[in-house]
């Protein structure tokens, strides 16, 4: 079977395609537009030429810093530490290495903002906490009341089956969970026995000092930030039975405390996490760490993942856990952010008290699973975690909430599952989480919908909350999923009937592919995306997934968007074959006519065919690769289309080596075939299938 880029020839108006997937030294910063860049750069090189590239980098005023994974390196530009490189400069710089360098990307600040208190924070990352008033009334709980609170069973919500799993002798032993955060109190008695000091590392300062910063004069304003690493570590692996704060979900697992950022030294306190810091955390000691948990995620819609984090995650998926793949767990962000979009990441949201939708919750179709994030059970509105002020007599905090708390809880439950079933692959684990999900006894239970495969899903909660005891029971049912990588196929949407100023219906017919779905990803042309107020995708089995809802849309979406993809898990388990329908509503009167009515595809095809009939222009030749890409891009721009550049050479591996036999069929395009494959139209349907 071959990958279908399009079910029909490109002879009709095309504005959409769909991707289905089944069973990717000293730091200086400078603000450029709305993005704050650093003087660090990701450099992807031909590893056989590494020493020569290093020497050439030095000639160009770059200092080599480190090799992150395989062919991914980080270097810093020292001639002008405030310089922001334009895309054309980076392209010329890449070409100057004559094929030895495959890509260069300038690193940027991912987080430099105060904590979110609204649905869409100003910029950077989102971390959820309870209000300061509630914090003041609960932070100093001590003594008998606190001990009684945590010595009584259940420790965690009965519906999640954590206490029940402990009774089976499954406590996370033998599993290592990395917490990516800023600062830890590694000698706190609640954490110290389970901190793996040999895996504790500060990727910013390149040493083992991950100490949490304490701003003594601003405790009230800063403790909820500076204690965040302790909070997450406590949820995963706090010591059980010591009559202190809590018991971690996997209280016998080990913690790799990874500090990936810093704090500003002035008020209001802000956190600084760079793409380089995140990448190095995700790539750290992948052969010794099983699970990576990050409660930091983009807080702006349609934020793209940097090439460093992308390659680090793919390296972990391929090589981690002796080839079974590292498990990546991340807090959900707003729609379109590529950490939530990634098929390799378990995107987690919080469930509010008694199963309500919390005030700051994101509605994102990419969410896989959720957990009770307001407290240790669905009825609670707080939980106790280790405090960095324990030497001052304050052992515990009670201000930790939100998706920040739900994420390490899911990571802890994954540790329980992997202790019981260590041979599960990353992909088998995701299937198991879906099968063991539950949605009963929630105030939002009535708003769950059933998809064509029988799974219940929710716009805020994914497939609901996880019952880990059920996962232990059903672990053997996913071992038949043998492929390490899912298959991926792409189909183009076509506009159906006339459009008007507020509605458009698009359809994609999938007739030659009948596989079982995992995720579906929609890619929408940016010229159209910013005008959409609501987008709903319907599967052949009539399951609906709300991709964009105008009631939750903010002015932030009208900022320049870097990504244009939206992933949905809602069709998990359904079959791919049939007619997919995308319903769009918005204000389309200002959309450029060619964005909806399409370009002269015949002219584009003939132009590209003629150009690439000369073999020296084939993109298989690395010398002309960037020139060919630029020519294609410019021709598309003339006709109102954007080129989507597909790089199939991650980590120096071919597509078949990297992704197995099912992921990118006919991936090595040449000449006009390569050019034609980039005619992506306006919207795509991408199917991830088993």
Structural overview:
Residues 1-17, 112-149, 554-558, 593-600 and 644-682 have low confidence and may be disordered. The protein folds into three domains: 1-23 and 486-690, no CATH class; 29-111, Alpha-Beta Plaits (2-Layer Sandwich), CATH 3.30.70; 138-450, Peptidase S8/S53 domain (Rossmann fold), CATH 3.40.50.200. Strands 1, 22, 23, 24, 25, 26, 27, 28 and 29 form a nine-stranded mixed beta sheet that branches. Strands 2, 3, 4, 5, 6, 10 and 11 form a seven-stranded antiparallel beta sheet that branches. The radius of gyration is 25 Å and the shape is globular. α7 (228-237) runs parallel beside α11 (403-420) and α16 runs antiparallel to α19. It contains 19 helices and 29 strands. The chain is an alpha+beta fold. It is 24% helix and 23% strand.
Radius of gyration: 25 Å
Mean pLDDT across the residues is 79
Biggest beta sheet summary: 9 strands, mixed
Overall geometry? globular
CATH architecture of the largest domain: 3-Layer(aba) Sandwich
Determine the CATH topology of the largest domain.
Rossmann fold
Q: Could you name the ranges where pLDDT drops below 50 across 5 or more consecutive residues?
A: 1-17, 112-149, 554-558, 593-600, 644-682
**In CATH, what is the class of the largest domain?**
Alpha Beta
CATH superfamily assignment of the largest domain? Peptidase S8/S53 domain
Number of domains: 3
| Number of E-type strands | 29
Q: Helix fraction?
A: 10-25%
Summarize the structure.
The protein is α+β, with helices and mostly antiparallel strands and 690 residues long.
């Amino acid at each position: 079977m071959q990958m279908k880029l399009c079910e029909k020839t490109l002879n009709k108006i095309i504005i959409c395609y769909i991707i289905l997937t089944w069973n990717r030294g000293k730091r200086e910063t400078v603000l450029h537009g709305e993005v704050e860049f650093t003087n660090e750069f990701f450099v992807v090189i031909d590893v056989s030429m590494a020493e020569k590239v290093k020497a050439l980098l030095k000639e160009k005023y770059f200092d080599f810093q480190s090799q992150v994974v395989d062919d991914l390196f980080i270097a810093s530009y020292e001639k002008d530490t405030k310089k922001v490189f334009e895309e054309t400069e980076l392209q010329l710089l890449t070409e100057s290495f004559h094929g030895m360098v495959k890509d260069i990307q300038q690193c940027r600040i991912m987080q430099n903002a105060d904590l979110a208190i609204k649905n869409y924070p100003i910029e950077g990352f989102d971390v959820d906490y309870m209000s300061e008033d509630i914090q003041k009334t609960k932070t100093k709980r001590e003594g008998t009341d606190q001990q009684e609170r945590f010595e009584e069973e259940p420790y965690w919500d009965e519906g999640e089956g954590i206490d029940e799993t402990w009774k089976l002798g499954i406590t996370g032993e033998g599993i290592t969970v990395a917490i990516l955060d800023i600062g830890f109190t590694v000698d706190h008695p609640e954490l110290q026995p389970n901190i793996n000091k040999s895996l504790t590392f500060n990727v910013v300062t390149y040493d083992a000092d991950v100490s949490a910063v304490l701003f003594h004069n601003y405790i009230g304003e800063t403790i909820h930030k500076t204690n965040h690493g302790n909070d997450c570590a406590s949820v995963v692996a706090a010591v059980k039975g010591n009559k202190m704060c809590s018991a971690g979900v996997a209280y016998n697992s080990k913690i790799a405390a990874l500090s990936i950022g810093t704090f500003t030294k002035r008020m209001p306190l802000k956190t600084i996490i760079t793409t380089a810091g995140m990448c190095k955390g995700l790539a750290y000691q992948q052969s010794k760490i099983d699970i990576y948990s990050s409660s930091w995620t983009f807080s702006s819609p349609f934020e793209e993942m940097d090439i460093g984090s992308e390659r680090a995650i793919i390296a972990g998926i391929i090589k981690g856990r002796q080839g079974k793949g590292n498990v990546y767990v991340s807090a959900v962000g707003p729609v379109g952010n590529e950490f939530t979009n990634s098929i390799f990441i378990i995107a987690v949201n919080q469930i509010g008290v008694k199963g309500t939708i919390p005030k700051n919750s994101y509605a994102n179709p990419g969410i896989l699973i959720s957990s009770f994030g307001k407290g240790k059970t669905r009825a609670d509105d707080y939980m106790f975690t280790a405090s960095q002020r324990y030497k001052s007599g304050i052992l515990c905090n009670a201000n930790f909430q939100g998706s920040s708390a739900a994420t390490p809880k899911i990571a802890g439950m994954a540790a329980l599952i992997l202790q019981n079933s260590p041979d599960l692959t990353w992909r088998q684990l995701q299937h198991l989480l879906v099968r063991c999900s539950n949605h009963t006894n929630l105030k939002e239970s009535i708003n769950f919908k059933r998809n064509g495969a029988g799974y219940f899903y929710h716009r805020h909660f994914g497939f609901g909350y996880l019952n880990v005891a059920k996962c232990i029971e059903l672990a053997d049912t996913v071992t038949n999923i043998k492929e390490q990588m899912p298959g991926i196929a792409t189909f183009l949407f076509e506009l159906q009937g006339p459009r008007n100023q507020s509605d458009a219906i698009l359809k994609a017919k999938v007739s030659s592919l009948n596989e079982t779905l995992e995720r579906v990803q929609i890619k929408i042309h940016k010229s159209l995306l910013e005008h959409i107020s609501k987008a709903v995708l319907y599967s052949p089995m009539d399951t609906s997934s709300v991709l964009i809802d105008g009631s939750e849309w903010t002015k932030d979406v009208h900022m320049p968007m870097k990504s244009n993809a939206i992933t949905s898990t809602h069709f998990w388990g359904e079959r791919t074959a049939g007619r997919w329908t995308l319903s769009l509503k918005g204000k389309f009167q200002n959309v450029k006519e060619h964005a909806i009515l399409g370009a002269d595809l015949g002219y584009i095809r003939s132009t590209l065919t003629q150009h690439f009939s000369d073999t020296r222009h084939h993109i298989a030749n690395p010398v002309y690769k960037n020139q060919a890409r630029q020519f294609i891009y410019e021709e598309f721009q003339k006709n109102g289309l954007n080129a989507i550049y597909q790089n199939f050479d991650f980590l120096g591996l071919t597509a078949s080596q990297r992704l197995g036999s099912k992921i990118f069929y006919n991936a090595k395009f040449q000449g006009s075939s390569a050019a034609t494959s980039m005619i992506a139209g306006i919207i795509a349907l991408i199917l991830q299938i088993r």
